[in-house]
């Protein structure tokens, strides 16, 4: 279409090597139906104009130690920070310190939050001394001290619709629930407010992060010292009691390998927890531990609409998980016929998508694989049902070979196959990716399927499968993109 070509070539759409566009060009593309409303909203969240306006506004000075945590209030007008100096400072949106809270903590402060619906007068903090404290800014005093944890308390979290409830996660593997409407239920011998206890279920129960879904506040996401992000439905959980067989330590020096607790009830209700993990990591975890490396989910966050979890896995990458996805952790890649309703392949790319594909192919042949992956990403936003784009991005990911790229390449190749079951590229790259992930059984299965489907196999591929998992090799002639 002439109009589409003119818009694409217009100086109003400044495409650089990565396909970056500004708000003005995005609005033009929406007007002429080159972008769907969903794509427009999604791309407006990250535009060249926005990035160009970002810069340092204020440098906040006052803490006398490392700053470990920050938290905004609901309106975004106040910022609370916690530090190794055992103090909490509250700053306004002009960079001025309004309050300095002498928390009484004897260890580094790792978590701080404003309590919702408190007119920003109540702040919660947690620390390496294992205590969780509630501070009243109006009266400059600490009103509650909770001593439920016997190891470092790492994070606190609140729910926007619950002004009296909050939770803490600690390196003793416990999530403690606090209700300010009730009197304290814990003493030096027991804790009766345990919502989640990881100790019976994992050898490394240290909790590193916790988040509450802002829309479905019954959902809590947890990160621990493994590669799994756990999603709990607290409606299906009840508070349990645990008994201390050793007292908590003081002065910020806590036990690192002994929780000091005996649990009364070790049975979890069915369906109360789901697990999210990149498909390649469970197989790598044992190998990593043998090399004295560990995976830890050091931070988890929900998107504003509560539909996604962003997990930072220490020693790996940052991953985005769909809360509503029904995929199992152990995803299998089976041969499936393409569904005409859900999987309609796009064979003729739009002008913008074709231009981006050509640019990405150029990057690929120049071995600029990070640029190629990024540009294929942009092309897929225009044609999310085009098999060739997923197949090409799969090849670029395998060549880039960053952590996690092999598994994403397999996902792309599998989607390309579902869109177009006759695609040689998709099947080649799916087999290669499965071998890189050491999923040899599935690779052999796909290899046999490919042999059966392709009558002229010798013209495209030469395969050698020998030995064990480590010795199995697949060699073929490269297909041009």
Quick gist of this model?
This protein has eleven helices and 21 strands. The protein has helices spanning 2-9, 23-31, 37-44, 48-53, 281-290, 351-365, 369-382, 387-400, 405-419, 424-436, 440-453; strands spanning 67-72, 78-83, 87-92, 97-102, 109-114, 122-127, 132-136, 141-146, 153-159, 162-170, 174-179, 190-197, 207-212, 219-224, 229-233, 240-244, 261-263, 273-276, 296-302, 308-314, 318-322. Helix 6 runs antiparallel to helix 7 (369-382).
Structural account:
It is a single chain. With 481 residues, the protein is an alpha+beta fold. Helices cover 26% and strands 26% of the residues. The chain contains eleven helices and 21 strands. The chain has a six-stranded antiparallel beta sheet with strand order 9-10-11-12-16-17, with no helix packed on it. A four-stranded antiparallel beta sheet has the order 1-2-3-4, with no helix packed on it. Helix 6 (351-365) packs antiparallel against helix 7 (369-382), helix 8 packs antiparallel against helix 9 and helix 9 (405-419) packs antiparallel against helix 10 (424-436). The chain starts with a helix and ends in a 28-residue tail after the last helix.
Indicate the mean pLDDT: 80
Helix content: 25-40%
Tell how many strands the DSSP assignment holds.
21
Radius of gyration computed on alpha carbons = 26 Å
Spatial order of strands in the largest sheet: 9-10-11-12-16-17
Biggest sheet, open or closed, and with what strands and sense? 6 strands, antiparallel
Flag low-confidence runs.
1-20, 247-264, 337-342, 456-481
Distance between the termini: 26 Å
**How much of the residues is beta strand, in percent?**
25-35%
Characterize the overall form. globular
Label the structural class: alpha+beta
Task: Please tally the helical runs, counting DSSP H or I stretches of 4 or more residues.
Answer: 11
